[in-house]
Amino acid sequence: MRSLLTHSFVHTLCSLSALAVKIPFHVSSSGIEETTPHVPRQSSSSGTVPVGNTQNTFYYANVTLGGRQISVMLDTGSSDLWVTGSVPGAQDTGKSVTLSYAVGNAAGNIHTAPFQFDGYTVQDQAFLLVTNTSSFSTNIHAEGYDGLIGLGPNSGSTIYKKLSGDTGNSAINRIFQQSPSSSNNYLTLMLNRRGDPGNLITGQFTMSEVVPGFENITSQPQLAVEKVYKVTDEDQHWQILTDQGVGIIGPDGQPIQVSSIVPKAPDGQLVVVLDSGFTLPQVPRSMSDAIYGRVQGAEWSTSSQAWLVPCGQLINVTFNFGGVSYPVHPLDVSSSDFNVAFSNGSPACLGTFQPISSAFSLLGEYDMILGMAFLRNVYTLINFGNLVEGGSNSNNPYIQLLSLTDEAAAVNDFIQVRTNGENLINTSQYALLPASQEQHSPETAAEKKAQYEEEVLSHWPYILAGCLVFLVLLIGYCIWRCCCRRKRLAKKKATQQKQGIVSGGGNNGTYAQLQDSGSTATLAMQPMRGSTLDFKHEYAKDAFATHA
Ligand SMILES: *[C@@H]1O[C@H](CO)[C@@H](O)[C@H](O)[C@H]1NC(C)=O
Ligand SMILES: *[C@@H]1O[C@H](CO)[C@@H](O)[C@H](O)[C@H]1NC(C)=O
Ligand SMILES: *[C@@H]1O[C@H](CO)[C@@H](O)[C@H](O)[C@H]1NC(C)=O
Ligand SMILES: *[C@@H]1O[C@H](CO)[C@@H](O)[C@H](O)[C@H]1NC(C)=O
Ligand SMILES: *[C@@H]1O[C@H](CO)[C@@H](O)[C@H](O)[C@H]1NC(C)=O
User: Fold this and answer.
1) Nearest by Cα to 261 from 234, 289, 237, 283
2) Does the Cβ of 409 fall within 6 Å of ligand 5?
3) What are the distances in angstroms from CA 118 to CA 48, 171, 231, 514, 518?
4) N or C: which end of the chain has fewer CB within 10 A?
5) Where along the chain do the CATH 2.40.70.10 domains lie?
6) What's the pTM?
7) What is the CATH number of domain 212-458?
8) How far is the CA of 199 from the centre of ligand 3 (A)?
9) Ligand 2 binding pocket mutation candidate from 96, 135, 136 (most atoms within 8 A of CB)
10) Mean pLDDT along residues 493-519
11) Which CATH class is domain 49-177?
12) pLDDT of residue 210
C-alpha cells in the first residue's frame, strides 16, 4: 500500500511538475538576454527573493541548508524539498524515500538541517538528500538548480507522510507554523519573461508580504482553492475554477467550450491547477486544437506531442477567473525557446498549450495545469488558510491573480521579436482558417483508455455511496426479516410459555444480537472503503505504467 501510494502520488501530478525537464528538446542558447535590472532587495522585514530563469523553462531561487546556499527549482505543484550534493551537519533520519520525477528518481535518505529562506529560519527542516543522481537524464546543475522546493499543500508531502507527527512538515508549512499572524500565511510568485524586450518584470518570490508596487494584488478577487476529496488529499493542488462559459477565450475571440472531467465542477467551469513546475501548460486536447488547429501551416509534432506553428503567427488566448481577464502574452502562446522545426526543416515555434496526456487526471481532479507559460502573465498570491498543518487559521485557502500582461504592449513586443518590427498581424497570411477547416491532433489508444478509466475512477465516491446505500438496505432488510421471525418466534414462545413448554432466559441474548447487527453495518464500511482505495491506486499505477 505504501509503495503504491507513493507511486500513484508521484505519478499523478506532483512528480510531473518536473515535466519541465521532460520536454524532449533543449532550449536554444540564442535569444535576447534579460536586460531588466534587478530590483534592489527591500530593507524592511524579510524582503523578496530573486527568482532565476533559465530560458523560460526553469525558475529557481536560493535557499540555505546547513549553511550551504543551494539553488532550488520553485514548484507550486509538489510539496517536498530535495537537494543534491552534500549538506554540512545534516542529520540522517535513516528513513529512505524515492520521489520519481520525469527527470529521474530523486532517491536517498530524509535528513534534517537548519534551513533559511526569505529571511525565515527553521532549525530542523526535513528534506531528501539525493546522493545518487545517475538516473537523472539532464544535468540539472547546468540548468541552474541543484534541487527542488515544493510550494504545494503539506498534505502532498511524501516526507511528511514518512516521518511521524509534524516533524516531516514541508518547509513552507514549517515557516507558516512559526508565523505570529496566521492570516498572513501566503506566498507570492512573479516570473519574468526572457526574450521579451518589453518585459519589466523581475522574477521574485515572497512570503507573508507582497512585492512593492504590486500591492493591488490584495484587492483582486479571492479565488477559492477547489478542494479534492478528503481521502485523496495527497492529490490536493493549488486549483481554481475558470469563469462559467467564458473561462478561456480562443484566438477567434470566442470562448473555447470544453466540458470538465471533474464530477464536482459546476457546469461550464473547468478546474485549473497552477503549477510552476510545468514549463508547458497542459490543457484538454480539444482546447489545444482550438488554439492552434486553425493556424495556417500548423503541424502536429508526434515527437514533441505538441503543435508547431509559424513563429510570425500571433495567437490570442485569454483566461477569465473571478470575472477578471488574464490575457496570455503572444510570446507565451507560441515559443521560440525550443529548437523545433516543421517536417520540411524550416524553423517553427512550439505551441505551448500542450494536450494533457501524461499528466491526465485519472481521478478526475482537474482539467488542466497552467505552468510557466501562463504564470508569467500573472502575479500569483496563494493564501494557504486552513491547509497549514498545525496552523490556527480556519479560513479556506484562496488564490489571487494580478494580470501583468498589457495586451497592446504585448502585440508590439511580438511584432518586434517575431517579425522584425513589421506589423503583419492582420495580413491574409496570418488569418485564421475557418472553424470548419480546424485540424485535430491524434488521440492515442493509451489516452482513450485513460479517459475511460477516468470516467469510472472519478465517479468512485458516487459508486461507493451507491454500494453503501445498497448494503444498508440489504442489512436493513435482513434485520427486518430477523425481527419478524423473532417476533413470530417470541409470539410462539409466549404461547408455548403460557402453555408451560419452554422456560424463559433467552431474551437478553436476543437483544444483544439485535444491537450487534447495527455495528456490523459500520464494520462492513471499512473493508469496502479500503478496497476501493487499493483499486484506485493499483489502477492508477497500471495506467501510468505505459507513460513511465
Ligand atoms: C544564488 O546565489 C548565488 C551565489 O551568491 C548567486 O550567484 C545567484 O545569482 C543566486 N541565484 C539567484 C536566483 O538569486
Ligand atoms: C545509482 O542509481 C542507479 C540507478 O538509478 C544504480 O544503477 C547505481 O548502482 C546507483 N549507484 C550507487 C552508487 O548507489
Ligand atoms: C490599484 O487599484 C486601484 C483601486 O482599485 C486603482 O485605482 C489603481 O489604478 C490600481 N493600480 C494599479 C497599478 O493597477
Ligand atoms: C485578443 O483577444 C482579446 C479578447 O478576446 C481581444 O480583446 C483583443 O482585441 C484580441 N487581440 C488581438 C490582437 O486579436
Ligand atoms: C487588426 O485589425 C483590427 C480590426 O480591424 C484592429 O482593431 C487591430 O488593431 C489590428 N491589429 C494590428 C496589430 O494592427
Assistant:
1) 283
2) no
3) 7, 12, 33, 62, 55
4) N
5) 49-177, 212-458
6) 0.80
7) 2.40.70.10
8) 20
9) 135
10) 39
11) mainly beta
12) 97
